[in-house]
Design a protein that fits this description.
With 311 residues, the protein is mainly alpha-helical. It folds into two domains: 155 residues, Tetracycline Repressor, domain 2, CATH 1.10.357.140; 133 residues. 78% of the residues lie in helices and 0% in strands. 47% of the residues are buried.
Length: 311
């Protein structure tokens, strides 16, 4: 379906999209603030771990630009996916399908924030970081949202790279380059993303089926998805320990990350074992919720060690 046809379909499907009386809170919702909070945190950790110094004001500017760039990506994602969002129970109350903001307004908002965040980061911090942010926005909007999401069950695997780039952009904001350490931060989030989202997709399989989004449970079935969750969780566990193994985190981090990784794999194994009824759904929710805690703790430990080392 072409972009013009999608726009016509959305306007035909819901007359409420003729609104456009969105409040400040509606525009904030377009930015996907929960996703943005993760981006801000991981980018900040990348910035703090990077060797060298950056002026505190420029550090704040860098984090704000990365956050706004992530929000712009979210707004453009909601603009393009409005026809899907109106079908899915999890997303039908978002500002566009709810009729609070029109698709055109969301598009203009997202483009404005994208250009502004990239130019500000480039002009005030460095152009390598600015170009990296531009690439990340384009990757999320064009590669993931417009291409992968509707064409392959590997959408979240490849597309997940966009959500893993922020710590590398934070690192680049200080150094003007990337390194093995920043790539490891990227790899942790990249390997974490599939089991995190597939656990949710197992619970919301009906939504994705109705919206005709080829998530792994829809295309390959729940059993195959459980196999993939377990495999990725097993691969993630040593990646989470990698900062210690590579020498830029302490033994305490190594032990804590290994312990958290064991719990992650155990919860994935629980999903693999429990395949029917409420017990299966509960197992998926447990992994989904713990995965957020897992990622937060790994980056919080790295941040804490960086602050202690710099004290």
């Amino acid at each position: 379906m072409s972009l013009v046809e999608r726009q016509e379909t959305m306007n035909q499907d819901s007359a409420v999209w003729n609104g456009g009386m969105g409040s400040v809170s509606d525009y904030v919702a377009l930015l996907k603030p929960r996703v943005m909070s993760l981006v801000i945190f991981t980018a900040f950790v990348g910035l703090m771990l990077a060797p060298g110094n950056v002026h505190p004001v420029l550090g704040v500017v860098a984090i704000l630009c990365i956050a706004i760039g992530a929000g712009a990506s979210g707004a453009l994602n909601m603009w393009y996916d409005a026809d899907i969002d109106v079908v899915m129970t999890r997303t039908r109350n978002r500002p566009i399908p709810a009729g609070k903001i029109t698709p055109d307004e969301a598009l203009a908002f997202g483009i404005t924030l994208s250009i502004g965040s990239v130019l500000t980061l480039g002009l005030l911090v460095n152009w390598f970081a600015g170009a990296f942010l531009a690439f990340t926005i384009a990757f999320y909007v064009v590669v993931y949202t417009m291409w992968l999401k509707r064409s392959t069950p590997q959408n979240i695997v490849i597309g997940g790279a966009a959500g893993a780039f922020p710590p590398m952009i934070g690192w680049a904001s200080v150094t003007g380059s990337v390194s093995l350490e920043s790539f490891v931060l990227f790899l942790i989030i990249f390997m974490w993303t599939p089991p995190h989202f597939w656990a949710l997709a197992l619970v919301k399989n009906g939504d994705y089926t109705a919206a005709k989004v080829p998530m792994l449970p829809v295309v390959a079935g729940p059993t195959s998805t459980r196999h993939h969750i377990l495999i990725y969780s097993i691969l993630l566990a040593p990646v989470g320990v990698a900062p210690y193994l590579l020498g830029f985190a302490s033994l305490f981090y190594g032990a804590a990350s290994a312990f958290l990784g064991v719990i992650f794999v155990a919860l994935a194994a629980d999903i693999w074992r429990k395949r029917e009824g409420d017990a299966a759904k509960a197992a998926c929710w447990r992994l989904f919720k713990f995965s957020i805690f897992y990622l937060f703790m790994l980056f919080a430990l790295l941040l804490g060690e960086s602050l202690i080392a710099g004290a």
